[in-house]
Amino acid sequence: xxxxxxxxxxxxxxxxxxxxxxxxxxxxxxxxxxxxxxxxxxxxxxxxxxxxxxxxxxxxxxxxxxxxxxxxxxxxxxxxxxxxxxxxxxxxxxxxxxxxxxxxxxxxxxxxxxxxxxxxxxxxxxxxxxxxxxxxxxxxxxxxxxxxxxxxxxxxxxxxxxxxxxxxxxxxxxxxxxxxxxxxxxxxxxxxxxxxxxxxxxxxxxxxxxxxxxxxxxxxxxxxxxxxxxxxxxxxxxxxxxxxxxxxxxxxxxxxxxxxxxxxxxxxxxxxxxxxxxxxxxxxxxxxxxxxxxxxxxxxxxxxxxxxxxxxxxxxxxxxxxxxxxxxxx
Length: 330
Description:
- This protein is of the alpha/beta class and 330 residues long.
- The chain is built from 11 helices and 11 strands.
- The strands form 3 sheets. The protein has a 6-stranded parallel sheet, with helices on both faces. A 3-stranded antiparallel sheet has the order 9-10-11.
- Helix 5 (121-134) crosses helix 11.
- The longest helix is centred in the last third of the chain and has 26 residues, at 299-324.
- The chain is globular.
């Protein structure tokens, strides 16, 4: 199992690479970034775990070398959010970075599973899909937008109310997108059920939706949610690899191209958007099926979904238009 981290020297990339290096599921870990990769590679290579680590810079066809033979490509590359910056502010920089990396994937390892972390995910996943379509290698079941941090936050923040010792034991579906009001945590469908007082539900939902701002402010503008995102990215990568290797019954929410996944068409029609995060059953081919839980949501959650739809449509269109109007990747 070869995993590649594109953006391995960054704030998310370094701790994510550390977690992947420590995983016994990975035999080969390849790191790529435009700066700093030799140092990160040397550092991680001293860790006594299974994965053999290699690192590449852009020079000397580094991206191609990093991606050759990849099974899973995780992309946290790009600039982080700074105070007062919306995810849309990140768009112009990160859109081009993701386009160029996905072009490399399309050329070198088109059958790899692609996990996009780079924000704004609501737009960067459609960008990835359009680039892959242009290259004639788009397989919807192999492309994932990583929204796991929203799930992790929902599990963690509800712990203050439930008192559950291990927050990860509470399963809370989070659907929609991956920014602000497009994030819709479905506390009504929590397993085991959680009893949240009415006066605490609104602030809890808002905290899940805008948890990233909390971290940006706490870091005084010197960074964003890098460590928790690295953990979330690792958690989704691990679950996907376990499913690829044959473990059954693994379900994780992810932001995917619904029309290309079993059960996704009905959700896409109901929501009016092609890209949307829902619980996905993972398996050897990637996204085996999308679980439609829309009919089970509460009336309050339906209102949240209306706000989500409006925000999501513009972000998706923006990503699609970026590739349509984009010069070929360098």
